Amino acid sequence: MSDKINRVVLAYSGGLDTSVILKWLQQTYNCEVVTFTADLGQGEEIEPARQKARLAGVRKEHIFIEDLREEFTRDFVFPMMRANALYEGLYLLGTSIARPLIAKRQIEIAKMVDADAVSHGATGKGNDQVRFELGYYGLNPDIKVIAPWREWELTSRTALIEFAEKHQIPVPKDKRGESPFSTDANLLHTSSEGKVLEDPWEEVPDYVYSRTNNPEDAPDRPEIITVDFERGDAVAINGEGMSPATLLAKLNDYGKTHGIGRLDLVENRFVGMKSRGMYETPGGTILHLAHRGIEQITLDRGAAHLKDELAPRYAELIYNGFWFSPEREMLQAAIDHSQANVSGTVRLKLYKGSVNVIGRRSPNSLYSEKIVTFEDDAGAYDQRDAAGFIKLNALRLRLLGRRGR
User: Which of 132-155 are b and which e, b meaning 16 or more Cβ less than 10 Å from the residue's Cβ?
Assistant: First the structure.
């Protein structure tokens, strides 16, 4: 492929950084820029991106603004939730799971408009550059990738603002000073990192939180809700059927009210460094615990324990950007197979930052009150069978003991 870039598809938010990137691409590569702006439920108005792109000289037919909330929830968040995926045992992967969808649409748009390159605004220090680019190359091995933060000389906020002012790019007032922290948001979560959060000893200031009420100020009375599942996916709240995105948004409302889903985490980035971030995943936290609740009575022990072994590997693949890898797809197939009978209803109590499963029922339940009861089981279980079971499992331990271990 020639080094000449004729047309590039830029992941464009309309913010300062990607507005500067748009102009920089036009100047540096003397190419046509196509903008793609995704509504993933970040809670911000995205239509202004259209006007900003037009002012920057982008042709009307080359401005793509798309509502991807349903696809994001249905095809990315829900499959991940079936796996009970947590990175390093805690993080619900809110940023990580959004990147493959954005990359997918960029590659699809690049094919539509006959572009020979794609571009993103991720820095050279973070995970997102890896996630975007592994997605690009996994879907189009020959695509040219332009990562401005690894190429240009605009190495500071001041330089970025000076470039913007020189080229009549509007600079919001809140961007002129040093930002106290940076954020990323979508329907699943909001993440915050940098500046006031960089010292892992200091508590996260209250003003950083945007998606959840302070648990200390949450209602003094708990709220009980139910979540219905079909084949591992949530389909209804309190008996009311909802689309995936609508359901997640509703759970976000519950989580916000009760201060659920806050996480202060020092994580290991794929690029090698440790970073401290604050995550708010209100609805996702409720959904994760509800899903585990319905699995408790519908999954066989062997399948459940194997899933728990696979989940950390699955989570690491998503965190590191390997959504489109064969190993993630293999794991997904196994996980989805396990969900065939994961249907039923979970009852949850929400109270001051906590979520507790207080009831679960399913037509596919493996729980037998008749067998487990402490009362007369009417012959359903012969307790004498346990003696042989224990002796067989103890055989090797007895041999070791006789040897003196």
Answer: bbbbbebbbeebbbbbbbeeeebe
What's 206's DSSP letter?
G
Contact 37, 65 (CB under 8 A): yes
Q: Are 348 and 224 in contact (CB under 8 A)?
A: yes
Number of other residues whose CB lies within 10 A of the CB of residue 1: 9
- Residue ranges of the chain assigned to CATH 3.90.1260.10: 182-361
- Spatial CA neighbour of 280 closest among 404, 186, 151: 186
Give the C-alpha separation, 37 to 49, whole Å.
Answer: 7
- CATH, domain range 7-69+96-175: 3.40.50.620
Please tell me the class of the 182-361 domain.
Answer: alpha beta
pLDDT tens for the chain, residues 1 to 405? 347 999 999 999 999 999 999 999 999 999 999 999 999 999 888 999 999 999 999 999 999 999 999 999 999 999 999 999 999 999 999 999 999 999 999 999 999 999 999 999 999 888 999 999 999 999 999 999 999 999 999 987 789 899 999 998 988 766 666 667 889 999 999 999 988 999 999 999 999 999 999 999 999 999 999 999 999 999 999 999 999 999 999 999 999 999 999 999 999 999 999 999 999 999 999 999 999 999 999 999 999 999 999 999 999 999 999 999 999 999 999 999 999 999 999 999 999 999 999 999 999 999 987 777 777 767 778 889 999 999 999 999 999 999 998
Q: Can you tell me the distance from the alpha carbon of 62 to that of 25, in angstroms, rounded to the nearest whole number?
A: 15
Cα–Cα distances in angstroms (integers) from residue 375 to residues 115, 227, 371, in the given order: 71, 31, 10
Main-chain dihedrals φ then ψ at residue 275, nearest 5 degrees: -140, 150
Computed from CA positions of residues 70, 142, 319, 339, in that sequence, does the dihedral angle turn out positive or negative?
A: positive
Contact residues for 271 (Cβ-Cβ < 8 A; gap 6+): 125, 126, 127, 130
Q: What is the DSSP letter of 91?
A: B
Q: Which residue, among 182, 187, 174, has the nearest Cα to 278 in the 3D structure?
A: 182
Q: How many CB atoms lie within 10 A of CB 17?
A: 20
Which regions of the chain carry the CATH code 3.40.50.620? 7-69+96-175
Token look-up 């933060």 returns 149
Q: Which two tokens stand for residue 137?
A: 């190359």
Task: Give the residue numbers annotated as catalytic, written as ranges.
Answer: 17, 99, 128, 182
